[in-house]
Each structure stands twice: as C-alpha cells, then as structure tokens.
Design a protein that fits this description.
Distance between the termini: 34 Å
Structural class: alpha+beta
Helix content: 25-40%
Strand content: 25-35%
Amino acid sequence: MAVGSAEALESQLFIVDPIQRLRPAKDSSVALMQAAQRAGQQVWVATPADLSVAGQSSSAPERGPVALVRAQPVTLADIQPTPSGWRVPEPWLELGESHLLPLKHFPRVWMRKDPPVDEAFLYATLLLELAERQGVRVLNKPASLLAWNEKLGSLRFSHLMAPTLVASNVEQLATFTALHGAVVLKPLGGRAGQGVVRTDAAAPGLRALLELVTNQQQLPVMVQAFLPAVIAGDKRILLVDGEPLGAVNRKPAPGEFRSNLAVGGAPEASELTAVERVICAELAPALQEAGLFFVGIDVIDGRLSEINVTSPTGVREIERLGGIPLADLTMERLLRG
C-alpha cells in the first residue's frame, strides 16, 4: 500500500483495540472520539499493529526514519444517556477506507490501547516516541506509559497510600501480612480488578498462595493493607492536565470487595472531598511534567490506591450520573493547549 496523504490539521488519531470490539455505552475512548467529532475534528482509528516505520534513502528530501500508521476515518453516531445507561443506535459507527499515512499528519494521537502492557505495547510506545520527535503530541506520553506502571506509579506518592509492599520474596510478603492482618494482593500487570485477591495472616495455605501469585518468587506482587471502608466504594477521579474534572464512586457487589465496574461494581454519583482535592493537587505537577494528560486515579477512604495512565475509564459514568460533559471538557482543554 502506498503512503497516502490526508489533511490532518483538524484530525485526531486514536490507537485502540479493534474499534468494533469496543462497547460504546461504556467505553471512555468512544466518548472521547465523539467529543473530538463534536469539536469539529475528523476522527481516525488504528490499532498498535497498524504502526510501522520506514527508513528514508539518502536522496529523499527528508532523511531519517518516518513513523507511519495504517488508519481509517470513522464517523460516530450520537449516543444519548438514559436513566439506566446509554442509548446506542445501530450501526453506531461508519468506517472509511484505510490509508497508510505518516503519523505527523496527526498533530494529536491518543494511545488508548487497553492493558496488558506486553511486548506489543512496548514496541508501539517506542514507535510513538519516534512520532513525538517528528512533532506529534501523543496522549499520554509514550515514555511515561511505560515508566508509570499503574500499580508502581502510585508508589511515588506512597505517603498518600495505605501501607504497601512490592516484593517477590514470600518471606517478606508473609511478614507484611502478619503485621497488617488482612491484606490485598495485586498483580503488577493486572487491570479491572483481575487477579486481585484478599487474604489474611490466618488464612490456610497463605504461603502457597504467595508462591502462586509470585510465580514461585520470580515475579513481584503488590500487597497492601486491606481498607475495610472499600465496602462504601472506591472512587475513580479523572484528571485532565492535572485538574480533576469529575468522579464516580464504585461500590462493590454484595459479597465482593473489588469495586471495579468490570467485576460488577455499581457506579454512584460522587463529588470530591477536601482530602481528595489535596491528593489531586499533590499529583498534578508530576503528572503534567510526565506528559500524562488524561489520568484516572483510584481513592479508597481518602487513601490513594492506583494511578491509571494507559486507558483510564469512567467517562460515561461521570457524564451520566454527574451531569458533567467530561469528554467535551477534555477536548476543549486539549485543543486550547
């Protein structure tokens, strides 16, 4: 396929999982695409596998490698909120013909591929770093997507968190558990509550569990003191360029301690507390410096739990329950910057 051309001054590219697999009534990437479209932008979509790089011959006008993407323009239908969710028309999207384009045709590129942060994700960020050097603004900054692991990144602010240990050594993990009683084990590469386990020092087979989650002491895992107040909810706060624009409380289902919406948590309208605003204010300078434009943090009982940077969710819930046009506000700030 030959390299094409496209007018990109009013275009945005979203690198996501295959768009046909996204759930438009819940997906924050779709909400952001619709906001871009409402702002007069032409929305294009691609997957990480559509990224490439081509070397230039010495006789080319511009020497050096060129970052490329095979992308498709997409037109999205209007999706309206209802008391119980969102009304999604069918079809909800229309895809245009694919084109192989230099990434620099898109002044703004959203990297919104869902975890896992695996080998393919790593290479995609490296290709996007090349596009950055050619003048493209990537959201979020590729280097920071790797440096701010969604579990480990929060440790930069460990004084805001519940007592936490990251280790692969079973003896260390068992000692921490004995000290704090009830704990939560979190795999560092997990998402949406997957693989998160609650246990305690008196649990039968604790050491066997620790051996399992660390792959026989080969992989580090995060262990945190369990916060009983999670029964009242785990708050997702979305920050845009360091400023909190909205929040939603996620309440665990009966008999469950995980509040993630993907595992049955129920979203509730919520506002920020004074303590949560202090947390956001402390995080803001570091997020801005790292080029983390769109971030979702999780807070339980006034304690920071995670800093989500890859593809933070919660836009649909905040918009419907809180009446905040969060995606439009995000796009307004982006286009103004």
